[in-house]
Structures are given as C-alpha cells and as structure tokens.
C-alpha cells in the first residue's frame, strides 16, 4: 500500500509522519514544498517528496502511476485559508474546488481505493440562514456558508460525496477545527499563525496576543491522526467527520493555557475590533460522536497538552 499525501504543510507533514511510523513510505506531493520545515516533522529519508500541482491533472496521474498509489490524502488548499480566500476569491475557488475535482477524477480513472480530503470545521460555524428548518422544499431550508473559503469546502464535500455515490471513489471529508502545531514554514490559516506567534512571543518573554473570539481548535497531531484513521477504516458508512478538541476555547482560556505552559507569560486579549474574519466568535462545539463511533477518534491533546507539546518542540529547535 502506498499513500499519496498532497500538500506537505502543517497537517500534511504530520500525516506523513504517522504513515512512516506505521511502516509506510508515503509520497508527499506539493507545488511549493518547504523541505527544511517538512524535515523537522518527518524524516525526509523515509518519504518520497515530489513536485506536483493539483491544478495540473497530469501531475496527479503521473504521481499515481509512478508510485503505484493505492490511497490519497489531499490536504492542499489556498494560502491563508479563510483570510486568503477573502482576498483572492477566484484563486481559492479554482484551487480548492477544481484542484479537488482533479484529485477525485484522477482517483476515479486510476481506481485508487480511498481519498481522504481535508474539509473544515468552518462549515459548522461560518453559516447564516436556514430559516426553513431543514425543509428541502423551502428556499431557506438550510444554512449557507458565509465566506468564500467555507463555500469552497461545502462544494468539495458535496462533490466528494457524489464521487462516492456514483463513481466508486471511497471519499471521506475531515472537518478539522482551527489547527495549530509544530511547523516552521509558511502555511496554515490565520488562527494557526496567531497561536504560533503567541507561543513564540511567550517563550521569548514578550507580550503575546490572544484573539478576541471563542474558537474551536484541534492540535495538528490529532488532525493528522483522525485523517489516518479515516484512511485505514475498513468501512466508512458515513463520510464526513468532525475532528476537533471538542471544546470551545475562550480568549481567557487561551491566555490562561499559555500562562500555564510558560509560567509568567503575559498575554493580552485583543479587542473585538481587531478580530479578523478568520477568528470569529464561535458559539457552540461540534459533535464528535460520528468520528468516535466510525473512526474511533477522540482528541489526545487538549489545549494545554497541545500548547505544551508545541512549546517543547519550539524550545528543542531553539
Ligand atoms: N490550518 C487550519 O487551521 C485548518 C483548519 C481546518 C481545515 N484546514 C484544511 O486542512 C488542510 C491542510 O491545511 P494546512 O494548515 O496544513 O495548510 P498548509 O498551507 O500548511 O499546507 C497546504 C499545502 O498545500 C500546498 N499546495 C497549495 N496549492 C497546491 C497545489 N496547487 N498543488 C499542490 N500543492 C499545493 C501548499 O504549498 C502547502 O504546502 C487544508 O485543506 C485546509 O483547508 C486547515
């Protein structure tokens, strides 16, 4: 079995690490790989790192053919996720939707068994409408995404489910909470970078900032573990999974957790006016029961454990 991991960033590099720990030699494909950052997460000697662009269908087909790929984990997305898509809607729509269609289509043609795609927990939070209360005969039966990024993720899920329904592609979509974790390269979303910067500042003895809104997080190692569980599950049955810490973190919680991990840390909570579109004030926690029942997923890292692991990693690399 050889897995193609597309997108070698914050999450993709952790997926590759877990696959290596399982004894696999995964193929990591990225159009702009950052080998130094990837090498800090997974031993580059244990993976095949290749260049490839999901907007070029031939690149995906070649990777599948050259490496006898049997399963795909697709984590590539537009730079800076929610924030990036608000700035460049066309680029994000093209990459997230057509790039994913290219991956699903290549899997269909080549007969790749399973395709696990990174969706996002923004689909649980960035929503408006639904006054028709789930009545499909009503124009406002269902809430709709309120950002370009979440609209692309909704399209990806719908298209993946139809590739499963009609084409035999064994699709799964992973709705991660906002991800933070070890990563020294560019990438991740706005919230990922906010936590990284806050922890860097706290460790350097500088004042750190916590965003004003409540958030639902997941540690990158848990996001990757949920993804690998979906890759390995015998029968999926259901195909969309919430993968988060299963808690709502208030700004005070985040500030306290940073201070618990870095004693004496000073953390300022941003005023709501500074809150970016990617850092909303979330109101509720995603239901993890399907991920638990079908995949056996439960988060191993709560906020303090995740921040502690991140701090250890940052200290180890100086
Ligand atoms: N980071 C988060 O907070 C978060 C939260 C929820 C969901 N997600 C989703 O998880 C997935 C992984 O996120 P991440 O934080 O690891 O992102 P990341 O930016 O760290 O990694 C994405 C990688 O995809 C690569 N890529 C971009 N376009 C490509 C293309 N055309 N062809 C090949 N590679 C390409 C980039 O070079 C990058 O290395 C994404 O789909 C994202 O939408 C992330």
Notable traits:
single chain; 318 residues; alpha/beta; Rossmann fold; 7-stranded parallel sheet; two-stranded antiparallel ribbon; 13 strands; 43% helix; globular; binds nicotinamide-adenine-dinucleotide
Give the topology, please.
Blueprint: E1 3-6, H1 12-21, E2 27-30, H2 35-39, E3 48-51, H3 57-66, E4 71-74, H4 81-87, H5 89-110, E5 114-118, H6 122-125, E6 127-129, E7 143-145, H7 148-167, E8 170-176, E9 178-180, H8 190-203, E10 208-210, E11 217-219, H9 220-232, E12 240-243, H10 251-261, E13 267-269, H11 289-295, H12 303-316
Parallel strand pairs: 1-2, 1-4, 2-3, 4-5, 5-8, 8-12, 9-11, 10-13
Antiparallel strand pairs: 6-7
Helix pairs in contact: 1-9, 3-5, 4-5, 5-7, 8-12, 10-12
The structure holds nicotinamide-adenine-dinucleotide (NAD).
Question: Would you write up a description of this structure?
Answer:
The chain has helices at residues 12-21, 35-39, 57-66, 81-87, 89-110, 122-125, 148-167, 190-203, 220-232, 251-261, 289-295, 303-316; strands at 3-6, 27-30, 48-51, 71-74, 114-118, 127-129, 143-145, 170-176, 178-180, 208-210, 217-219, 240-243, 267-269. It has 318 residues and is an alpha/beta fold. The chain has a domain at 3-181 and 220-245 and 286-301: 3-Layer(aba) Sandwich (Rossmann fold), CATH 3.40.50. The chain has a seven-stranded parallel sheet, sandwiched between helices. Helix 2 (35-39) links the parallel strand 2 (27-30) and strand 3. The radius of gyration is 19 Å and the shape is globular. The relative contact order is 0.13.
């Amino acid at each position: 079995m050889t897995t193609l991991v597309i997108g070698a960033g914050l999450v993709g590099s952790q997926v590759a690490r877990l696959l290596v720990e399982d004894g696999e030699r995964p193929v990591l494909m990225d159009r702009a790989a950052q080998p130094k950052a990837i090498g800090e997460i997974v031993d580059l000697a244990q993976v095949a790192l290749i260049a490839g662009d999901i907007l070029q269908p031939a690149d995906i087909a070649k990777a599948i053919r050259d490496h006898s790929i049997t399963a795909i984990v697709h984590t590539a997305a537009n730079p800076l996720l929610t924030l990036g898509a608000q700035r460049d809607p066309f680029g994000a729509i093209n990459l997230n939707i057509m790039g994913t269609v290219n991956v699903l289509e290549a899997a269909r043609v080549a007969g790749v068994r399973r395709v696990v795609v990174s969706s996002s927990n923004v689909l649980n939070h960035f929503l408006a409408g639904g006054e028709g209360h789930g009545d499909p005969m009503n124009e406002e039966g269902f809430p709709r995404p309120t950002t370009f990024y979440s609209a692309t993720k909704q399209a990806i899920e719908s298209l993946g489910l139809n590739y499963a329904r009609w084409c035999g592609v064994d699709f799964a979509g992973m709705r991660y909470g906002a991800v933070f974790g070890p990563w020294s390269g560019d990438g991740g979303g706005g919230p990922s970078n906010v936590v990284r910067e806050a922890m860097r500042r706290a460790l350097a003895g500088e004042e750190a900032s916590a965003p004003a809104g409540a958030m639902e997080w997941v540690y990158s190692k848990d996001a990757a573990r949920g993804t690998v569980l979906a890759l390995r599950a015998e029968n999926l049955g259901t195909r969309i999974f919430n993968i988060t810490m299963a808690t709502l973190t208030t700004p005070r919680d985040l500030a306290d957790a940073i201070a618990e991990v870095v004693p004496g840390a000073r953390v300022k909570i941003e005023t709501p006016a500074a809150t970016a579109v990617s850092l909303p004030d979330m109101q509720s926690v995603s239901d993890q029961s399907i991920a638990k029942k079908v995949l056996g997923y439960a988060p191993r890292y709560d906020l303090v454990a995740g921040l502690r692991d991140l701090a250890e990693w940052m200290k180890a690399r100086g």
